[in-house]
Design goal:
The chain is an alpha/beta fold. It is built from 17 helices and 20 strands.
Length: 526
């Protein structure tokens, strides 16, 4: 069967790429390995009557342009804001963070920190605007075109004030702790803000470069509110179901349970794919929503790659340190420090009271595979969305951080996943004593489960470490940040490309633009 373009993986970025290519008139086919479209951005029933976002679990970074172009609202997508951004239970106290409450809450711990919030937010917003500006730009590669892109994308940075330049440089090179210590003195606010620096990042908040990861998670927006976080009614799968409807309208075909075994190459050019069942699909364009590690270590024959590129891929860093659970609950958690139902149940509930706690969680996981006191963020989306659970019941997403992709001493995650899940349940129960007894069912995704189920090598939710050596023009490697891989006709359209992980749609949007530019150039020369 022959197509103009084949997309490997039906995750959200693959759907976005397919949409733009089909809108331009190409015959496009998506190969999705699972029996449901959406990749890691899906909603599934994990216990009778209980549905939840299986892997990705919250909305902020989805690009407005992508949502508008694909008419996602018209295809049923509705996103609502959290009533609070975050809730941090502490030993005998708590901190709430959100519009209208943060300053007063922080002042209980430090009036100095409360006064620093407005200038901190203003400074971070200036820097986040730079990230927003670059998100839908193609990073520079080699040649005159790359030099022009470098000038055009770098020139606006000259308009920053000296202190803004310093902070931007600090964010890319120093640790989250160093950056936050320059603004605040109290542990609770540094914990809430510093949590973003270790989301999907198997590192300590003391690790150089972790400050940028903090910035990566704040450049989004929801319903026009910058830096906000929200929930998609129906779960994260509502996003990809709306996208699937949009691509179907454009004539894109989606093959479920079509696992790609090999990218076919002839004469140095991609010419299609071979599926695990032996079928071959032909196309002159192959775009991979699968991450770089999966693509170049498993799907592309090494002999087809330049030696230096192959060596770079050998060293491509993956492993976000993520352990992901969903639980069905008979009742809401009752927090010892804030009893009763309230807006805090609709927040991102962070169980990691300080940067020191986060550092110990990382060092423990690095030494033993996981920490005795892990980092847990809990969301209870059923407080905002009654489609997810039976009346009176709830579902909770547990995003758990600092779990080694590979365990020491030859252990397998399959052998310890339930033990670790018990530890995570106990961690939440220490703050909400009724939690453990309210658990009806649970769905566990260890790093190994994330790899097997979603093709996330090392369980890496971002398709590769977000660090200075794997960002912008160097994502996935320097010289190929423009989505064009070293095999002609092979492109990278997933989170392993700029601007990185999260449900953004930006890599898919940008890859499609470059694919269409190459196609116009080829036809123009012909």
């Amino acid at each position: 069967m022959k197509f103009d373009a084949i997309i490997i993986g039906g995750g959200h970025n693959g759907l976005v790429t397919a949409f733009y290519l089909a809108r331009a008139g190409l015959k496009v086919h998506i190969c999705e390995a699972r029996d449901i479209v959406g990749g890691a951005c899906v909603t599934e029933e994990f216990a009778p009557g209980f549905r939840n976002s299986t892997a990705s679990y919250t909305v902020s970074l989805l690009q407005d342009k992508v949502a508008s172009d694909m008419n996602l609202a018209e295809h049923g997508l509705k996103i609502v804001l959290r009533p609070l951004n975050n809730f941090l239970p502490l030993d005998g106290d708590y901190l709430k963070v959100g519009p209208g409450v943060t300053e007063a809450e922080v002042a209980r711990f430090s009036p100095k920190d409360a006064a620093a919030l407005a200038p901190y937010d203003a400074r971070l917003e200036v820097l986040a605007d730079q990230m927003r500006r670059l998100a839908l730009k193609t990073p520079p590669a080699r040649g005159l075109k790359g030099m022009t892109a470098l000038i055009n994308q770098g020139w606006p940075l000259m308009g920053l004030k000296p202190e803004e330049h310093r902070d931007l440089f600090t964010l890319f090179t120093r640790s989250a702790r160093e950056f936050l210590d320059g603004w605040f003195e109290s542990d609770p606010i540094k914990a809430v803000l510093g949590f973003d620096s270790i989301v999907g990042h198997f590192a300590s908040p003391d690790t150089p470069g972790s400050a940028y990861v903090l910035l990566h998670h704040v450049f989004g927006q929801v319903n026009g509110v910058k830096g906000a976080w929200g929930h998609a009614i129906g779960g994260m799968g509502a996003i990809t179901q709306a996208m699937a409807a949009a691509v179907s309208e454009k004539g894109v075909s989606i093959g479920l349970e079509e696992r790609v075994a090999k990218v076919n190459v002839a004469g140095g050019k991609a010419c299609g794919v071979t599926l695990e069942d032996g079928r071959e699909l032909e196309a002159s364009i192959v775009a991979s929503n699968a991450g770089p590690a999966l693509l170049f270590r498993q799907l592309v024959d090494r002999s087809e790659l330049p030696a230096e590129f192959a060596r770079s891929m050998d060293g491509y860093a993956t492993g976000s340190g993520t352990f992901r659970m969903n639980v069905a609950l008979s009742e809401l958690p009752e927090f010892s420090v804030l009893p009763g139902r309230g807006p805090h149940h609709g927040a991102g509930i962070i169980m990691a009271p300080s940067l020191d706690y986060m550092d110990r969680a990382y060092t423990g996981a690095k030494a033993y595979g996981w920490s005795a006191k892990p980092i847990v963020e809990m969301l209870i989306p059923s407080t905002l969305d009654d489609t997810l659970a039976p009346p009176g019941c709830h579902v909770a997403s547990l995003f758990c951080q600092q779990f080694a992709p590979k365990l020491p001493d030859g252990q397998s995650w399959d052998d310890v996943r339930d033990k670790v899940a018990d530890l995570i349940i106990d961690t939440v129960t220490a703050h909400a004593p009724n939690f453990k007894r309210s658990v009806i069912a649970r769905q566990i995704h260890s790093p190994l489960d994330l790899e097997r189920k979603f093709g996330l090598i090392g369980g890496d939710i971002f398709h590769g470490r977000i660090s200075l050596d794997q960002l912008w023009a160097a994502r996935p490697v320097l010289g190929h940040g423009d989505h064009r891989m070293p095999i002609k006709g092979l492109y990278l359209c997933g989170s392993g490309a700029h601007p990185g992980g999260g449900v953004t749609g930006a890599p898919g949007h940008n890859a499609a633009r470059e694919i269409l530019a190459d196609r116009r150039f080829a036809f123009g020369r012909a």
